[in-house]
Structure formats: structure tokens, C-alpha cells
Amino acid sequence: MKKNNLILLRDMITIGIAIISLSVFITVNFTGLYHFFVVRDHLGRLVGLSNYELMINYRYLISYLQCGWIHHWQTSLALSSKGLTHFADVKRLIEFNNLILILFGGLAGVVITNRVRKRQMWQLILPVKMALTLLGTFIFILMIAFNRIFILFHEVLFRNRDWIFNPQTDPIIKALPENFFEACFLWAFLVWILAGLGLIWYGKRELKKAR
Fold this sequence. Notes:
Blueprint (H helix, E strand, L loop, with lengths): L1 H28 L1 H11 L9 H16 L14 H38 L6 H20 L1 H12 L20 H33 L1
Helix pairs in contact: 1-4, 1-7, 2-3, 5-7
């Protein structure tokens, strides 16, 4: 029994890391979310660009962050050395996440395939429900204390203070409002929720077929 619990814990951790990594990848590459804020809040004019020009700069930024062979961000916006250093730090984190996604995505695929073959997906129902409950609690806390959590997030991930931008030397920060980043977190959590619900649905389907 203890061995089975350890295997279940191992599988949950593997699938969980894969889902988290996938949610980061999807959120980073979902330029439509930023486009919504650009159009709604007319962010381009805050940095002296049209919304179209700002979106081109943003797409170049995503390409720079995602692609290891791109070493410079092509932008028409001014950037200080600290700003450039911060985006380089973000690039390293995102590239690391991509490696994690490849590794744990593959492992999670093996785990799920084995469980489907052995008809053991139902064992994930309870731990996934518990994880979603904890996630719901965190989302509630995030909604009421996003600013503090966002600051703590940066303090944990970055060893320097380069993430504190000066709007005069790094005007890009004017076009990256806090509510956009809050929406990014919520979008990532939505991926977690959908993935969790998918696992629960399959597990219940498996139980129904076994009756």
C-alpha cells in the first residue's frame, strides 16, 4: 500500500510539473491576451507608438525570449542596460522552462499512457481534486493581494533588482500594465484547471466503464 502511494505521489508530481511548465509555455506565447489589453487600453500611445507597432515589438520580444538562437531583442523602444539584463534573465528562465516541458512532458506522457493501459487513471481523481482546491484558494488570495505576490514572485526568481524599471529609461514598462500580468497568472491557472478537470473526467469515465 505504501509503495502504491509513493508511485501515486511520483506520478502526480511528474504530471503536475508538466502541467505547470505547459501553462507557462502557453501563456508566454499567447500574444492574443496582450493584444486585448493593447486595444482596450490604447497602450501604444503610452510609449509613442501605434498599437500595431507596439504589437510588432511585443512579438519580437516573445521570439527573443523563446528562441535560443536569437540573442538580441529587435525593438524601437529605448532600453537601459538594466532593462536589457532583466529581459536576458527572463529569457534564461523561459528557456529553462522549455527544457523542463520537454523532459517532464515526455515523462508525464509515459505516466499517463501506463495508467491508461492499466486502467489506473481513477487513482488520480482525489489528489487532483485536492490540488484544484488548493489552487482555488491561491487564486482567491492572488485576486486580493496581487501586487504583493507579484513583487514576491520577482524577489524569488531574480537575484538582482533590475526588474524595477524606470519609465524614463525603459518606457516599455508603461506598456506592460500590472493588470496584464495578473491576467497572465489567471490564464496559466486556467490551463491548470482545465488539465485537472480533464484528468478527473477521464478517471470517472474509467470507473464508469469498470462497473
